[in-house]
Batch of 4 targets.
Target 1
Amino acid sequence: MADQKDNIDDFKVQTAKHPNMGPAPLQPHSEQSRDRLSKRLSTDSNGTSDGGAGSSTPVEVTALEESFRRFAIHGDTRATGKDLHGKNWSKLCKDCGVIDGKNVTLTDVDIVFSKVKKKSCRTITYDEFKVALGDLARKKYKEKAGDEAEAEVFKLIEGKTPVIAGVTRAVASPTVSRLTDPTKFTGSHKERFDNTGRGKGKAGRVDMVDTSGYVSGYKHRGSYQKKVNKPTEGKPM
């Protein structure tokens, strides 16, 4: 009992000398959750998991993988770019010229997609994507070795982006030009534009009442006031 009492007395003395000693204050639950989230995001960005040693150097994305991501997110706002579904896979092969209608057809593309993907999935990963391209490369370039054929197919896809369909281009037409040129308008339509082709606004659409006192078409409007204000030459002031 005496030894235990001495230990307690020593602890009190040490605490008195060092008031900062003692258990660390507990963090609020929200701060703990924020710390765990920050750690997970940092781990994901470095490509490591808990307990693993990873490098903080970012992984360089190749041109082929960049094209894969662009087609993976095409038309889908919820897509992450990490996997590619069958519709965009077919679009990629079509837009990049992998499908030639002879050695590689749309049917071949669909068959290869079903072959490389997992049975329980509707999408393929980037690694499965390269395997699928390898199968199509051997069909498209039969005269070349496997590695050479894959390299040729990769070149067709690298740096490419999805082609946006349905965009209408303006076509120059004499008829359209004549109908959109204000200088060639006649009648009431001509009154809506000035000599430069700029619209007059309300003045060109509504009949404005002229209260100046001049008759319509009079060309010397305002000339009388100029004559009155003009100083007489040769007469003393």
Target 2
Amino acid sequence: MKKERFSETQIVAILQQQASGQNVAQIVREHGLSEATFYKWKSKYAGASVAELTRLKQLEEENRKLRQMFADLSLENQAIEEILRKM
């Protein structure tokens, strides 16, 4: 997987530059971005704070772990049912 150049904290800071009144063209030039990337970030992270993004990452990780646990238990349950049917 490709490593991202900017962390979510940096992205939020870059987006806040526009909110403080800087021109998009200046921001893009300063950070070496394309305007498309800037507007994609803006649609994805609009109004989000660093704390909210951190919490979102924690919830996504917890959700991933719970899904994995469910998949493991479901597989285990199917195996037990299979064994019981053969008896």
Target 3
Amino acid sequence: MALERIYADILAVRIIPNVDPDLAKQFKLENHHRSLAIFTSTVDDIGYTALDEATKRADVDVVYARSFYAGSGHASGPLSGEMIGILAGPSPDEVQSGIDAVRQTAETSAYFEALNPEKTHALYAHVVSSTGSYLSKEAGIRRGEALAYLIAPPLEAVYGLDAAIKAADVKLVKFFGPPSETNFGGGLLTGSQSACQAAADAFRDAIIDIAEKPIKY
């Protein structure tokens, strides 16, 4: 089955050059966090992947990242999407560089894959070859290690994770028990880059099998 790629749209972006001290306290910013870049995206997991990439390309930290309940199909407004991400850095130039990395990642290298023509059934089997500070912290691993970032609808996520873990020398370091805020599930697996790729491939294959034969067990 050939799967069509689903990229995320970055819906809105704003930069705060010099954040107000009261707002800085709410985000528990460090003294060097003087500027913020805020964005919303139509796909949360792509947004989180893009945030991690930003920490590798600019002097920025992820200070806030949350998914919205029920997903982009039930967004609170036309610019809300499925998640919000906030980067903090020492200057407007740095956070702008971070946002540039977010947009490039979301538009070119991170994507879901559609399992049906309507694109209502999809999975995320993305390999991060070298993590930045954000996903490293989320996964509890050292910066620069590889990750398989695996997401799917609830049943598919559980079945696919089992197949992925068995397919390669990887370890499940974070489990997103279904339902998440967006009613998906999945996990983060770590190992060598090749092992993470093998796990992601097994995850995808297992979910394609479910899509093709959902009741045959």
Target 4
Amino acid sequence: MVICSVLAIFSLFSKAMASARERTFIMVKPDGVQRGLVGKIIKKFESKGFKLVAMKFTWSSEEHLKKHYADLAGRPFFPGLVKYMSSGPVVPMVWEGLNVVKTGRVMLGATDPKDSAPGTIRGDMCIQVGRNVIHGSDSVESAQKEINLWFDQKELIAWQPAVEAWVYED
């Protein structure tokens, strides 16, 4: 009887954890695109078990990037950041999964590549902070804001990968 109750609680917990999936915004910056790293970055997120729900290849305007980086507008590096980010195409993406925002940030590594651990995207693929190849949302709230800025709702594809049962418990 007790075992059945424990199993029932565990089953409910597992389902709650699986349903607590969230979305994050990840963008390969112009240096990552120019260096041909888009596929390697996608492979890392797919290998982890996250689900790609939106992606595009675009060359963003300075006006759009000012909105994206509005929280950094008062910083001295802001004008250079916006100019750099508008200097070439970028690949914005939306990834979905359990704790994808926090885990995604860990996968990216520290903003400054010299502080990034080996095995992270920035730790393995970057040298300088001004060419750190990738942007990732830092919270669920900023992810939602960034997703809404870059994608229309119709561009977010709801789908079920065949391997999902091998990534998540019940």
